[in-house]
Every structure is written in C-alpha cells, then in structure tokens.
Amino acid sequence: MVAMTHPVEARVDLQAISDNIALLKERAGGTAVMGMVKAEGYGHGLVQAGRAALAGGATWLGVAKLAEALELRAAGIPVEVPVLVGLTTPGEPYDQAIAAGVDLTAGSVGMIEEIAAAALTAGRAGRVHLKADTGMSRGGAGPSDWPAVVDAALAAQAAGWLEVVGLSSHFALADEPGHPSIQRQLAVFREAVELAEKAGVRPEVRHLSNSAAILTLPEARYDLVRPGIAMYGLTPVPRLGTFGLRPAMTLTARLALTKRVPEGSGVSYGHAYTTSSVTTLALVPAGYADGIPRNGSNLLEVFVAGRRRRIAGRVCMDQFVIDVADDQVEAGDEVILFGPGDHGEPTAQEWADALGTISYEIVTRIGSRVPRSYEWYEGAGNAE
Ligand SMILES: *Cc1c(COP(=O)(O)O)cnc(C)c1O
Question: N or C: which end of the chain has fewer CB within 10 A?
C-alpha cells in the first residue's frame, strides 16, 4: 500500500490515460486524436491529463473554456500542440487567446466578428473552427444560419483576420448506437461541410466524434476525433461494456475514527441509519464538499478491510460513516471509495448506476479540496 499523507486523495494513473488514448487512436483507425481535458481533465487534473494524452498519441487538446486553454499554455503545453476552446461567449479576452496560439470555436456571425476584432488587437490571425449545429440544438450554427457564418468567416479570412482551421459538430445521442438521430446528424454535417468547402473553406480538420462515436461509428471519424470520458477509462456506452478501457481515478480515504456503539444507535444527520446490533462504526473524512454525492446516503458502497460496505446514514459536508460490523478496522486504515475495481471496490460507473447519473459526473465533481496524486508515470512531464 502506498503511504498516504492526505486523509482523502484521488490517485490518478496517468499511464492508464495514455494507454486509453492509444487504444482509442487504434480503434479510430489511426485518425488524429484531440484529448478532451475540460473541467480539470474530468476531475483528473487539466495539465497532467493533457500531458498523458499527448504521451499516448493525441496531437490536439480540447477544453470548454478559454481560461482552461490559457492554463494549458501557461503550464508549458507548446504552441505546436493545438488547443481548441469549444465554448466561446462574447466579451472574453480573445486577443489573449490568439496571442497564446489557442484555437477558437465560432457558431455565429457575431462571434466571428468578435474574433476578427481581437485579431486586430493581437496583430495576427485567429485560428477558428466553425461549429455546425447538426441536431443537438446546443452550440453551433443551425442549417439556416450556416451559410452566413461560412461567408463571414471567409470574408474575415480574406481580410487576414482569421484562418478557418476546422469544421465541427457534436452528437446528441452517440451513446445510443443505432438511434436515428445519429445518421440524421451525420447527413446534416456532410451537407454543412460540403457547403463550406464549395464556398472556399479549406479546413485542416473536420471533426465530430466523441468517445461513444469513436467506439461505435467509424464513418464519423473524419480527420480528428475527440475522446473525453473514454480517455479516463470509463465507458461511454455502459450497456456495451468497458471496451478494454482502464479507469484512471481511484478515490481513497483513511478512516478518521472507529468506535463500538450499541444496538439502536442513530447515525449521522436525521438518524437515517440505525445500528441493528452492537457494531463498529468507522468515520470516512470525505463529504459532499469533496464531491461525494449526498444522494448516495444509505446507498453507495465503499471498500474497506477486504469487503464492500454501504454508507450508513447521510453523507455530510466533510464526512460520512460506515458500519463495519465486527471487522477489525482502525483509524488510519485505507478505504477505497471507487476505482478500477481491481480489489473489489466499486467503479465510478457503479456509483453512477446507483445514483441514476453518468460516470462523467462522478469523477468530474470530485472537488478541488481533494488532492490528486499522480502515479507511475513521472515521465509524463516530458511528453510532447
Ligand atoms: C466533452 C466533449 C467531448 C468529449 O465527450 P465524451 O463523451 O466525454 O467523449 C467531445 N466534443 C466536445 C465538443 C465536447 O464538449
């Protein structure tokens, strides 16, 4: 067992991230890969996950927000590695993004104009990916706005203010293979690409595949694929299994306290759990402020002393209790909350299933108060 100094710790296996990327690249037939590291690398660490992805063969990194892209550049991810911001909002410092060599997504004429204006300030052309809304009705330009977006981008490109690097879109239901919306979205994307290319756009990359599409929809690869959840080793389509991916995050804690209590002891707020016999209670120093879902009260399992135990009573802000019966456990002993399942601990997918949510939310919500430790792969710092 690794010596732990923190009461709660998320151990991140960077080798697993790197291996998952290599597996996905192979499954995508060698198509270029953009490792999606938004939201602190789905809770695994923005920069560390990014470096592990590059080590595994990704050549692009993707984030949601501009600040995340700037953080990657500030941490030393070189401009040779394109970093794409997927979600842009008027009024952000696009001149800084352009100066840092960050690619921007535009799905409206207004955003193209704003990026062009920022390029004037930055003194160089902005790199832009035009995003088509092919049926998700979230970001991007729908078919009626697309021609105007393409024209505006071409005009700004002709003026030297931007370079149209990519054409992109996003699936709403790639995690339901065979759903009719998938082929509909693909057809709309094909048309959007054709229209843009006929108008004179020469994109370096056309891209729309998330993890689920990479693993189930070869015809959607185009020039670049964008895995997120799968690079962290969690399946994008739970009913199709794990696809050989390895979960990268193990959430652990050390017991703060153990004690014997009588039968009939009410446990934690609301006494939502009552002991049914004389028993040992153990206090786990992780709560909803650390990202443990409060809905997991009396529901989620953790792994301690060689077996699974259910959370006893309510999850509090900083802690929760488990009833370990007569097991020999002591303060300081390790509890695994979730992990790859190697020892018998639950996976993030199991927690998600129990809570009626998706594994994405389980790992991403592990809070900033939880220190991350990076295992086995010290070389990731040199990856380029
Ligand atoms: C988050 C995101 C992805 C990755 O999605 P996964 O389902 O985690 O693979 C891909 N593309 C865009 C635009 C995203 O925002």
Answer: N
Phi-psi region of 2 (alpha: psi -120 to 50; beta: other; left: phi over 0): beta
| Distance of CA 63 from the midpoint of ligand 1 (Å) | 9
- Containing H/E element for 125? none
pLDDT tens, position by position, 97-151 = 999 999 999 999 999 999 999 999 999 999 999 999 999 999 999 999 999 999 9
β-sheet bridge partners, residue 35: 61
Q: How far apart are CA 208 and CA 221, in angstroms?
A: 7
Q: Is the pLDDT of residue 4 over 80?
A: no
| pLDDT higher than 90, residue 14 | yes
| pLDDT value at residue 384 | 35
Taking each helix axis from N to C terminus, what angle separates 14-27 and 46-55, rounded to the nearest 10 degrees? 50
Is there a catalytic annotation at residue 38? yes
CA dihedral 335, 338, 341, 342 (to 10 degrees): -40
Structure tokens at 106: 């535009």
Q: φ and ψ at 242, to 5 degrees?
A: -95, -10
* pLDDT number for residue 3: 57
Ligand 1 atom closest to the CA of 229, numbered from 1: 8
